[in-house]
Design a protein that fits this description.
heterotrimer, B: about 1050 residues, alpha/beta, Dimethylsulfoxide Reductase, domain 2, Barwin-like endoglucanases, seven-stranded mixed β-sheet, six-stranded mixed β-barrel, 30 strands, about 25% helix, globular, disordered N terminus, disordered C terminus, C: about 325 residues, mainly alpha, Formate dehydrogenase/DMSO reductase fold, 11 helices
């Protein structure tokens, strides 16, 4: 089945938070609610021999999606057409079961960073949707002539990224934007990583070269 | 709780979103259609969906973007994919424009203060434009009538409204010498001016778009045209492009690094650029000059420099007369010497030691190939000339660098020795393959005592490396090459931003032209204006005299003469003049930008100077209300935000230029040029009736006696006095690419722009990326060379010596005496090279862990820097920025934090002498460079507080924090309102009071000053939790107007037409 | 992980309530003809109490859910295979079994239950389909009533086991939270739930049987007086099974304790769950077995309650499966 996700180049990412704000405007997210975050992985080593990186984190679109398996109401589901893990806000009861199931979420869904977030005002769980309302049929290779072209649209966090660090697409489709970035990184021998967690296989890939910093996932 | 933000998907015809407060976009549709009347606000269509290309002015650079509207409301902004450097990026400052333009804090109408000054019970009433202009003009005219023209003064700077030219020219138009900007001497003036002195070309600033070469050929569109990417090594000295120009230079740096370009970053803070750097030199704040000299020592000793360029294109070989400190002219040094016949009078011949003969020899200007046949100049040389032991400029530099071995520099600058060595090797490596690297020098060094010395040193390094006008360098010029043999040698016409005032009023010397040519130009100016002469009506000897007098009387210029280049005054001297009335008292103030209390150094001193009735009347113009307006503005003119602003200035990115149409329009806002133009016209009308009684400043002569009329000279420059003129300029520059014929109207222009993001102009690459400008032949058969006296790169800054002695080239034809010898660090003169003066605030010596700092009671060094979320004083009202960065975190090393018992996230209090009481003048033997000497121990403000971020991102003993102010502290919900500039603002503790001001520019110390820190708790009246910022979101309440004016974008009346002024009523001077 | 209190309460109440129902069923199965009159009244009371407890547990879930109006989505999605859906299924089955058992024991009790004010509990969950069948069987006559009670008893026991197990299984089967992936959890939850239910039943039994004897209800008092040994035998059987369950609780708690990253509340866990909870209720059960008395049942109930409560709370606190670095 399709594996639509983000590939984020941490050699480029400078932690500027523009992806968080772009996401908030696109999805009408209120204050205190977030679909994504950028976590600075604090410098390792002692000054001046230090290295660090910024880790943008959002729903990792896990292939075995424990959230979908755990959800009692069916609100957490996979889009039947493109397999993207989503939350149906009409159905969700806000029971927070998925917070226990998701290894990348804070148990209360209210402390950053937490990829699933509890929206107090609406009483439902929220998370990154890969802007499926724009990108459901997109290959992630943006059409610069018309950025609203549904066959090539990318989420605003990818389009506006101030470092060109974010790419989007289906990793099962070698021609997708994300696949191309991943292939180029592999060819260049740069480190490809995922945020390891027991019991899940996240689809989101991170690129980080040793020259910039040593990968420490969420900062082990 | 409100979940109000603009949502496209929640855009329903009329119903508000269930269960949530008004989602701004959703309710507009209902009331925007007002029966087809075309009060279309800006010019965008107000029905249905539309997209217009525009350019974000969220920071100092300019990212082209696409703005999406639904029914006349901006709902989304995204980066423009064709932009050559930002390549589709748009940072959060650009995205947050939606919450800025529609913010409840907007000033939408002229506002007049109705109560006393002070934030606590500030109140404003809306008045008409005519009332506002008349009120401003009357107050100014009254002050000038009573106290003379010097009682009026202007200021600008603070971010968010770019009124650069208006601020410089408005005071002059009303006969006042006083204007200042918290940036200027502390931001860019040193670098742009030193570059002009040393080689007459563009400086090393990335932020100000002087350095563009590194970003060449990065965009797919440019690669497709075969434009190459040549920068392989770049040094970012005191610059953080990835933060300060997030989506433009930030994206450029990301692309550059991705293509394998190696970077060296010199910054006390582990900034994002430092994180990605090949080599990071975490220099101790304030010690840059020593590090620069350590580079000179290695490069000169190991001959890593470009010998040919240094010998024949720089003044390093010139022998210097130890008495005049100027290079010997051949005619002086060699008896009976006459310059060669083909050497024009405007190209002097100097002397050097000829390496072949070991003797003093003439070194004529010319093509290295021909000159090297005659003489092989020695770079490091000493010789006796006329009985005086004279050293070459190179030798003088080497002597100055003598103490700064790598080991000494490592100890003084707290940087590991091996890293300094590795950085020098990397920086010099491209020369070995015949290529070029380059240094980019950021703003941080402008804000220190060595503001003139470090840029001199850094540009000198690029010059001796020959990294000038070459692919891959940073000292490059953009634009078409001059035609071969067609142009005279380049000259630099001084005074006023590229010689502008020199051309207008005749003041200033044209460096590179002969003395005779300069004298002839002055003589040609008539006593009376000759209607059929070619000169402009204001070019008369009396205007020349008056404008020259403004320079001589400018506050602080006795000692800090570099400020003349932008005609700005020395800020502490202005504050002193307000406090003491010496030499004259500025009384009516027209401020043209944002939050002065957030961006002025030692803000507390300014607050005290103003608030104990120091300034009679304060006029402001700004799109938003900030601490400065709420505390002390008596009258505020409403300015447009960039979504409303038509072509504020046609912003470009590299060789692309994008249109900036006024897409929407709120209230009675106007472009930033309009208020000053209208006020000067109105004031002039009043004053021109009384020319025989109005005194011209401190001269004692009346305007009538001087045969002068208001507005003086060119009047206010920069922009027009109405929106129509701005539209006309936009339409003209883009009608061709839009296929519009003559006489196209605003409506035609916007119709052609609708849903068309391809309307931009591109200069062909070969007309823009050009090199070797100095090698092109001039009309005298010699290579053009550089716009300096010697026609070469003057690594030894000759002009500094003349400037410190006579005010050359600015005050020509009149002279002012020498500077106070105690100010000059080069034996009483301005230093012509990089040197390390005795430092006052910055720590001087480092013990084992670098903590032996100069001030025992304030043992830590605090330095500053930008963060993504804000630009200068802007965006503290942007809810989506504040929820991510609610307070200005102070960075502190874990070892130092432990010493002071501070944990990560703790509230801390930071103090300096400005908040603990200080003698204005320390017994340092240097009488401060401005008039007043304060003896009493005055505390200017309370210490500031913020939260600690404890990590290994700064060295032990160093703190780092950005400026800040709190718009929430005067929110209507606060029980006790304050101005919000005191609680967390680093500028309360900076030193603009009694630091060692930089000798040339008077720059005060914003970076690397002595502080202390201790645990504390949260200050009053500040918000930190995300949902607390809800009042900042667009709503139907404007904070400063009593009646409910409807949602700023919901109430159709607000989408008003452009403010149309009646034909200019007052006939100004022109 | 922060303790989700409404969920803890649900599992305690629903589990305990189901356990009570289970033991009522067990008693009904083991009871002889003669002791039925007071037993029917006890079982009737037990069924009511069980329904109230289980329903209260369900209410707690509504507290946890931010949008209760959406709860029907759980019903619609019952076949989703999510462990929470299975738990909800068990909850529904338990309620149904409780109602059926209630009706059966009222019908089975015939005339005496009527005057005892048991009243018609039919209305409690009229919607349950099974109810009509049992009621009809009741009217058919004495013998049918006996058979109905037996069927309802078996259903009750089955429901108790299903519910008790499910309250633990929904933790174990939660994907992604490795700190819960041990079978010890459902076993411990089941055993501790039944323990609670059992002691509660004994209390009810002692209470109602005693009152019947004192309360002047001649027939019931006579029957109770007539068969002291058989009644005591019933109590002993329950006590013995409670002892077994207590032992099982101890074992399961120890296995879980060793598995889970207990962190800084390990001491509290070891003291309160296997020792006070498990051993405490074991001792109480044995004492009750040797000389049945309500005070031992009360002691057992308290011990079991402490053990069960701390066990369920521990599960949340020990759930460090989520990367602690998220809070870094």
């Amino acid at each position: 089945m399709a594996k639509r996700t983000l590939v984020i180049d941490l050699d480029r990412c400078s932690g500027c938070d523009s992806c968080v704000v772009a996401c908030k405007f696109e999805n009408g997210i209120g204050l205190g609610n977030y679909y994504n975050h950028v976590k600075p992985i604090n410098p390792a080593g002692k000054h001046p021999d230090i290295n660090m990186y910024w880790l943008p984190i959002q729903c990792q679109q896990c292939e075995n999606s424990p959230c979908v398996a755990a959800c009692p109401t069916g609100a957490s589901y996979r889009d039947p057409d493109n397999n993207v893990v989503l939350i149906d806000k009409e159905t969700c009861t806000g029971c927070k079961t998925c917070l226990a199931a998701c290894p990348y979420s804070d148990p209360t869904g209210a402390v950053r960073p937490s990829v699933r977030w509890f929206n107090e005002e609406l009483g439902v769980m929220e998370k990154c949707t890969l802007c499926n309302h724009l990108t459901a049929t997109s290959d992630g290779v943006e059409n610069t002539e018309d950025t609203t072209d549904a066959a090539h649209a990318v989420p605003p966090c990818v389009h506006n990224c101030s470092c060109g660090a974010r790419s989007f697409g289906d990793l099962d489709d070698p021609a997708s934007g994300a696949s191309k970035v991943l292939a180029a990184a592999e060819a260049a021998g740069r480190g490809i990583h995922t945020i390891e967690a027991e019991g899940v296989t996240p689809a989101c890939k991170y690129i980080l070269s040793a020259e910039i910093a040593d990968w420490r996932g969420l900062g082990e | 709780m409100q979940e109000t933000t603009l949502t496209r998907r929640s855009f329903v015809k009329a119903a508000a979103v269930a269960g949530a407060a008004v989602a701004v976009g959703s309710t507009v549709a209902g009331c925007v259609d007002t029966g087809g009347s075309s009060t279309g606000g800006g010019a965008a269509t107000t029905t249905g969906k539309a997209m217009y290309g525009s350019v974000c002015h969220g920071c100092i650079q300019a990212c082209p973007c696409k703005v999406y509207l639904e029914d006349g409301v901006v709902v989304k902004i995204e980066g423009h994919p064709d932009a050559p450097t930002s390549i589709g990026s748009l940072c959060l400052k650009g995205l947050n424009q939606i919450h800025t333009c529609y913010s409840p804090r907007r000033v939408l109408y002229p506002l007049k203060r109705t109560g006393a000054r002070g934030a606590e019970n500030a109140a404003f009433e809306r008045i008409s434009w005519d009332e506002a202009v008349q009120l401003a003009a009357t107050k100014i005219a009254e002050a000038i009538e009573q106290y003379g023209t010097y009682s009026f003064f202007c200021s600008v700077g603070g971010g968010g409204a770019y009124s650069f030219m208006q601020a410089m020219t408005m005071p002059m138009a009303l006969g006042s010498p006083t204007v200042f900007e918290p940036g200027c001497a502390q931001c860019y003036l040193p670098r742009i001016t030193e570059a002009a002195y040393m080689y007459g070309g563009a400086d090393q600033s990335i932020a100000d778009c002087a350095v563009l070469e590194p970003f060449k050929g990065l965009a797919p569109l440019e690669e497709a045209k075969g434009v190459s990417q040549d920068t392989k090594v770049i040094v970012l000295w005191a610059a953080q492009p990835s933060v300060s120009q997030t989506a433009q230079s930030g994206r450029g740096m990301a692309e550059l690094r991705a293509r394998g370009c190696k970077t060296i970053v010199v910054d006390p803070n582990f900034s994002p650029d430092a994180v990605k750097a090949t080599i990071h030199l975490p220099v101790r704040p304030g010690s840059d000059a020593a590090l620069v000299l350590s580079w000179y020592r290695v490069i000169l000793d190991e001959k890593l420099y470009d010998e040919e360029f240094t010998k024949y294109w720089t003044n390093m070989p010139f022998l210097v007369n130890p008495e005049t400190k100027l290079p010997w002219l051949a005619t002086e040094a060699i008896d009976g010497y006459t310059p060669p016949a083909d050497m024009p009078a405007n190209t002097p011949v100097y002397v050097c030691v000829d390496e072949n003969t070991g003797q003093v020899a003439a070194l004529p200007f010319g093509d290295p190939a021909t000159v090297s046949a005659e003489v092989n100049p020695q770079v490091l040389a000493t010789a006796t000339v006329k009985g005086l032991e004279s050293k070459s400029c190179g030798q003088i530099y080497r002597d100055e660098a003598e103490p700064w071995t790598l080991a000494k520099a490592a100890e003084f600058c707290w940087v590991p020795e091996d890293r300094i060595r590795a950085a020098i090797d990397l920086y010099t490596s491209p020369l070995k393959e015949g290529k070029a690297a380059g240094i980019a020098n950021g703003v941080a060094t402008d804000m220190e005592e060595t503001a003139s010395q470090v840029p001199d040193g850094l540009m000198g390094l690029d010059m001796i490396m020959g990294y000038v006008n070459k692919p891959g360098a940073t000292l490059t010029q953009n634009g078409p090459l001059p035609a071969d043999g067609a142009n005279p040698r380049p000259t630099m016409f001084w005074n006023g931003f590229g010689g502008m005032f020199g051309m207008m009023y005749g003041i200033g010397y044209e460096v590179g032209a002969t003395e005779e040519a300069n004298e002839a130009r002055i003589a040609a100016i008539p006593e009376e204006w000759d209607p059929n002469g070619q000169l402009a009506p204001f070019m008369t000897q009396s205007t020349l005299w008056a404008m020259n007098q403004l320079l001589l009387d400018r506050l602080g210029m006795k000692n800090h003469r570099g400020l003349y280049n932008w005609c700005h005054s020395h800020i502490p001297s202005v504050r002193e003049a307000i406090e003491t009335g010496e030499p004259f008292k500025p009384r009516v103030w027209f401020d043209m930008s944002g939050n002065k209390f957030a961006v002025l150094g030692s803000a507390g001193a300014w607050y005290n100077a103003i608030m104990d009735d120091g300034v009679d009347f304060i006029i402001c113009q700004y799109p938003m209300i900030t601490s400065f307006q709420i505390e002390c503005a008596d009258l505020i003119f409403p300015l447009e935000e960039w979504l409303e602003a038509t072509g504020a200035s046609s912003f470009g990115q590299l060789n692309y230029a994008f249109p900036c149409p006024g897409i929407i329009h709120l209230g009675e806002t106007v472009p930033n040029s309009v208020p000053s133009q209208r006020v000067v016209a109105a004031a002039s009308a009043i004053l021109n009736e009384k020319l025989d009684s109005v005194i011209f400043g401190a001269t004692g002569q009346t305007m009538a006696e001087l045969k002068l009329q208001f507005p003086l000279g060119m009047g206010v420059m920069g922009g027009s006095d109405s929106e129509e003129v701005e539209w006309a300029a936009q339409i003209a520059s883009y009608s061709e690419v839009l296929g519009l014929g003559e006489g196209a109207t605003k409506e035609d222009f916007m119709a052609a722009l609708k849903d068309n993001h391809k309307a931009y102009n591109v200069t062909p690459p070969d007309q823009y990326w050009t090199y070797g400008q100095h090698l092109v032949k001039a009309d005298d058969g010699l290579p053009m060379g550089f716009a300096t006296e010697s026609r070469k790169c003057e690594v030894y800054n000759q002009i500094h010596i003349k400037l410190s002695r006579t005010g050359f080239p600015y005050t020509y034809p009149r002279e002012i005496g020498p500077i106070d010898p105690r100010v000059g660090t080069w034996g009483g003169d301005y230093s012509p090279i990089c040197n390390v003066p005795v430092q006052k605030e910055a720590p001087e010596v480092a013990n084992a862990n670098g903590l032996a700092l100069s001030d025992p009671e304030f043992p830590l060094a605090l330095t500053s820097g930008r963060v993504y979320y804000f630009h200068h004083g802007t965006m503290r009202h942007a809810a989506f920025a504040r929820e991510l960065y609610p307070v200005p975190y102070v960075r502190i090393n874990p070892a130092t934090a432990a010493e002071y018992g501070i944990a990560d996230g703790d509230w801390v209090e930071i103090s300096s002498r400005r908040t603990q009481g200080t003698d204005y003048v320390h017994g340092t033997g240097i009488e401060q460079s401005y008039a007043g000497i304060k003896e009493n121990n005055t505390k200017t403000a309370e210490p500031i507080r913020t939260k600690a971020y404890v990590a290994e991102v700064v060295a032990p003993g160093v703190l780092w924090m950005e400026r800040f102010w709190n718009p929430e502290s005067f929110d209507s919900t606060q029980s006790k309102k304050t101005g919000g500039w005191q609680q967390m603002n680093v500028n309360v503790i900076t030193n603009a009071v009694d630091c060692n001001f930089n000798e040339v520019y008077g720059s005060y110390t914003n970076r690397g000053f002595a502080v202390n820190i201790k645990k504390s708790e949260k200050p009053e009246g500040v918000w930190t939790e995300p949902k607390e910022f809800a009042p900042f979101l667009p709503s139907n309440k404007n904070e400063y107007l009593p009646d409910d004016i409807g949602v700023l974008i919901e109430n159709k009346a607000l989408l008003t037409d452009i403010v149309a002024f009646p034909a200019s009523t007052a006939e100004g001077g022109q | 992980m922060a303790v989700q209190w409404p969920i803890v309460l649900f599992k305690l109440l629903a589990g305990g309530g189901a356990g009570l129902l289970g033991f009522a069923g067990l008693a009904a199965l083991l009871s002889h003809e003669a002791s039925r009159p007071w037993l029917a009244r006890v079982n009737f009371a037990a069924a009511i109490t069980s329904l109230v407890l289980v329903a209260a547990g369900g209410a707690c879930v509504l507290l946890q859910v931010a949008k209760p109006a959406q709860i029907m989505a759980v019903v619609r999605n019952i076949s989703s295979g999510s462990p929470i859906s299975l738990e909800f299924l068990a909850f529904a089955v338990t309620l149904a079994a409780g109602v059926i058992f209630l009706l059966a024991s009222r019908v089975g009790g015939g005339e005496t239950a009527g005057e005892a004010g048991g009243g018609s509990a039919v209305g409690v969950a009229a919607g349950e389909t099974g109810v009509a069948g049992a009621a009809a069987a009741g009217e058919a006559g004495e013998v049918g009533g006996g058979m109905a009670v037996k069927i309802a008893a078996v259903l009750a026991i089955a429901a108790a086991l299903f519910m008790g197990f499910m309250t633990g299984y929904s933790h174990m089967a939660m994907p992604g939270t490795t700190a819960w992936h041990t079978p010890a959890i459902p076993v411990a939850f089941l055993a501790s739930a039944l323990l609670l239910g059992g002691f509660l039943y004994l209390l009810l039994l002692g209470l109602i049987r005693g009152r019947a004897a004192v309360g002047g209800d001649a027939a019931a008092a006579a029957a109770a007086a007539r068969t002291p040994s058989r009644d005591i035998a019933l109590v002993k059987i329950i006590a013995i099974s409670l002892a077994a369950l207590a032992a099982l609780t101890i074992i399961a708690a120890v296995v879980y304790g060793l598995f889970a990253p207990l962190g800084d509340f390990a001491i509290a866990f070891w003291l309160l769950v296997p020792v006070i909870g498990g051993a405490g209720s074991l001792v109480a059960a044995i004492l009750d077995w040797r000389r049945p008395a309500s005070s031992w049942a009360m002691l057992g109930l308290v011990a079991a309650l402490i053990g069960a409560c701390v066990l369920r709370v521990t599960l949340w606190l020990a759930n460090t499966g989520i990367s602690p670095l998220l809070r870094g």
